[in-house]
Amino acid sequence: MAQPHSTRSTCPYCGVGCGVIIERDGAQITGVRGDPDHPANFGRLCSKGSTLHLTASPAVQQQARLLQPMRRMQRGAAPVASDWATATDDIANRLADIATTHGPDAIGLYVSGQLLTEDYYVFNKLAKGLLGTNNIDTNSRLCMSSAVAGYKATLGADAPPACYDDLALADTVFVAGANPAWAHPILFRRLEDARQARPGQKLIVVDPRRTDTAAAADLHLQILPGSDIALFHGLLHLMLWEGWIDARHIAEHTSGFDALKARVQAFTPQETARLTGVSEFDLALAARWFATAGRTLSLYCQGLNQSSSGTAKNAALINLHLATGQIGKPGAGPFSLTGQPNAMGGREVGGLANLLSAHRDLANPQHRAEVAALWGLSDVPATPGKTAVEMFQAAADGQIKALWIACTNPAQSMPDQTTVRRALERAELVIVQEAFATTATARHADWLLPATTWGEKDGTVTNSERRISRVRPAVPAPGQARHDWLIARDIAQALEAQLRPGQPPLFDYPTPEHVWNEHRESTRGRDLDITGLSYALLDTLGPQQWPMPEGAAQGRARLYEDGRYATPDGRARFADVAYLPLAEPRDARYPVSLTTGRLRDQWHGMSRTGTLGRLFGHAPEPVVDLHPQDMAQLRLQAGDLVQISSRRGTLLLPAQATDSVAPGQAHVAMHWGDEVLGGRALPGQVAAGINALTTGAFCPASKQPELKHTAVRLGKADLPWRLVAAAWLDEAQALQLRQQLVALLPRFAFASVVPFGHSGHGVQLRAAAEAAPPPELLAEVEALFGLGPERQDALRYEDRQRGQRRSMALRRDGDDLRLQAFVLAGDTRAEAWVKALLQEQLPAQSYGRLLLSPGATPPVALAPRGAQVCTCLNVSEPQIVQVLGRCAGTAEARLAQLQGALRCGTQCGSCVPQLKRLVAATPVQAAAPGVVQAPMAGSPA
């Protein structure tokens, strides 16, 4: 057998850009660990990164990966296998025909911040250089375009001026619209280290919710949704009043301050408190810490960006740094956190509808001429391209005839899913280039093109601190999967034969390094000049920050240290922005503010993380978070179904009480799409997860949609009939069962299907309806769970008059019988203990008829184990609380004792913020006889 080997690469999840070491045995990835030499993470990985190798298992390859080109001969039919030659020729012919018949702007390309820089570059050149359309945009439009526009409006260039090392140097860290404890966990570990080393460092968190990041703060400004600009203007008002501004910096290095000064006069503490919901005392404290503590670093993300006034929010925060001189020095600056692993790379190559290579502006004739000369063309198109929301609206309206979608899942992630689904149905040609065959968008494709993914790709990415890292392949591509740049190159070459016959080739790229070298040359003399870099140098010196022009020994860690900004006159520009209401404010019909956000252990649409049951332990099912006061007002108990309605759609979700949201607000994770969550759609609507509700309104400057806030109304759903079914299977069977169950979701009024299990592979279906569904549907569910008539040894009970049905399958394991699958229909009261019996794989022979008794009292030993806190070691909250009751001393001492006993938080560290909250909330109990309860199966000893 081949010996294990290691390959240095980069994590494909968030914009922190952690280095990983991939371990392989032959052609199989067998492990992953953090790279101790990578300057982003120094060997640490979060719960998602540390399980990457599990998403590359043979079962995932077999059941979830797209492994050969697939063609759908007609809409609604199943795709059939094809080959690359047929796919390349057919796609090129059809794109050429559409471009000739309807013009190149009848084609739209929608790509992804998870592509590598080389992939992005080829796609961008294909659209703007070959096809002659600027209709190429990226899902980074959904996360970073407001940050781009905010930087350019104030500092003159799309360039975060700070770096990760500044976390350890800042005296105040100001987090606005971000939850790095969950969304950027390794960056949060670095912040925890900084606070431990410098106890005087202050942490201010601005967020409508009490997140794990907010819970760790010295000051939580729990603003009303959408009131960020009012807050920032109010803080500047206080800084002016108290004289806490840097008059010298303003006079020597900025312009436009007088207009902003006049603007913020109206934002008195009293008025700001009214607009934001933050007390005047907390406003004054925040202004003092920001302006006078020494060095202030701001971290911000989607809470500011995903807004119809996202650019203004970004600029208003940057105003505070310019006014106080908190920029261009160690430990200070406005630092936007990138959502995706290579959203920065996409911006660098101009892979958006309004950009060109190397941060050039499409609207600038000189910039267009420079790119045309680089590519050997007479010109590039000047007509502005359609951005993400505009592109799908144009396709829904019939203007765009072809959509080429690469490495992204708009049928889950885009707002206003009714419009998105109409676009996918109306387009004459839908090409989906993907690694995973299980995405919602894949169901709409005429052509499915298999792409490589993490562990197989070769190229570069750029993280949030402008640091370029190599992505290296550890194993060969499976099946017929090809690199994204190579797929685009081959189709481009086939198109060239039709659109540019006899002319010099534009896509003569034998390797990704050839692509990167052309991109590198495009940056010469630009703000992101990387002409001093090469693949060889990255291999020798490791990841490097830009700019790094030719002759430089290393990249630059911080920008604007000389006080000169990237504007024509070298002065930063204050942004005189108005405070605007939400795109969809609450009103009498829709009185609740619904916000969206990330989960700790999941990534985007979960095409990768969703293959692992262990990553569902912390947040096992889709829910809506509501304040207990609102739960009481709606007469809801935990788990009751809530109907959430916006102006675009309706969604049903179980309710969960939490004080992390304020009264009058609700929160749903962004990850839940119809690959997991479904039910019957209302007429004219689609049942497409959370984004069936969200609005397509977008910021006029950045064109980034307002995904974060939607006005909704809530009501208790009257669906008394319930079903829960679960099975414990091998990995391949579990993945296959989930895909089969997704097809059943629309046949119930509400349904969800999720994996579970830390040490095994479980699948759970939950459903609800007005009354018992037809027996054929229940029989279909039983058959999928291995409880069909052919299972002679299954235990069964049925009461058709009451709509009740229960089935159990047991398997022999030595001298014991263990539960393998169950279906509880009509009466699901036994779910908790029956599922515990299944999930913990405990002996079941002694429970006999209790398994079929609807209201049987669960044995004490099978009480639910409670919410999972530590994903790495499968430690639950009740276990933690029990141990903490016997831990005495300071908070730090109690945490250390807890970790010594259960080891939770000692692996990836993602659960440490929650552990600290539990330490603070759990009193020390009097010593009780006996010992600490032993962990359940799958937990650490």
Structure notes:
- This protein is α/β, with parallel strands linked by helices and 941 residues long.
- It has six domains: 4-63, Phosphorylase Kinase, domain 1 (2-Layer Sandwich), CATH 3.30.200.210; 70-143 and 342-511, Rossmann fold; 145-336, Dimethylsulfoxide Reductase, domain 2; 592-716, Barwin-like endoglucanases (Beta Barrel); 721-862, no CATH class; 868-921, Arc Repressor Mutant, subunit A (Orthogonal Bundle).
- Helix content is 30%, strand content 19%.
- It contains 29 helices and 37 strands.
- The protein has a seven-stranded mixed β-sheet with strand order 5-4-18-17-16-6-7, with helices on both faces.
- The longest helix has 19 residues, at 84-102.
- The chain is globular and about 80 Å long.
- The two termini are 32 Å apart.
- This is Molybdopterin-dependent oxidoreductase.
- Residues 4-60 form the 4Fe-4S Mo/W bis-MGD-type domain.
- Its cofactor is Mo-bis(molybdopterin guanine dinucleotide); [4Fe-4S] cluster.
- Belongs to the prokaryotic molybdopterin-containing oxidoreductase family. NasA/NapA/NarB subfamily.
Q: What's the layout of helices and strands?
A:
Elements: E1 4-10, E2 19-25, E3 28-34, H1 58-63, E4 70-71, E5 80-81, H2 84-102, E6 107-111, H3 117-131, E7 136-138, H4 145-154, E8 172-176, H5 180-183, H6 185-197, E9 202-206, H7 212-215, E10 219-221, H8 228-242, H9 247-253, E11 254-255, H10 257-264, H11 269-276, H12 280-292, E12 296-300, H13 302-305, H14 310-324, E13 333-336, H15 343-348, E14 355-356, E15 360-361, H16 365-375, H17 388-396, E16 402-406, H18 410-413, H19 417-426, E17 429-434, E18 447-450, E19 459-462, E20 467-471, H20 484-499, H21 512-522, H22 535-541, E21 544-545, E22 572-573, E23 592-597, E24 624-626, H23 628-633, E25 641-645, E26 650-657, E27 665-669, E28 677-678, E29 709-716, E30 721-729, H24 731-742, E31 750-756, E32 761-769, H25 775-784, E33 795-799, E34 804-813, E35 816-825, H26 831-839, E36 868-870, E37 875-876, H27 877-884, H28 891-902, H29 912-921
Parallel strand pairs: 6-7, 6-16, 8-9, 8-12, 9-10, 11-22, 12-13, 16-17, 17-18, 23-27, 24-26
Antiparallel strand pairs: 1-2, 2-3, 4-5, 4-18, 14-15, 19-20, 20-21, 23-29, 24-27, 25-26, 25-29, 28-31, 30-32, 30-35, 31-32, 33-34, 34-35, 36-37
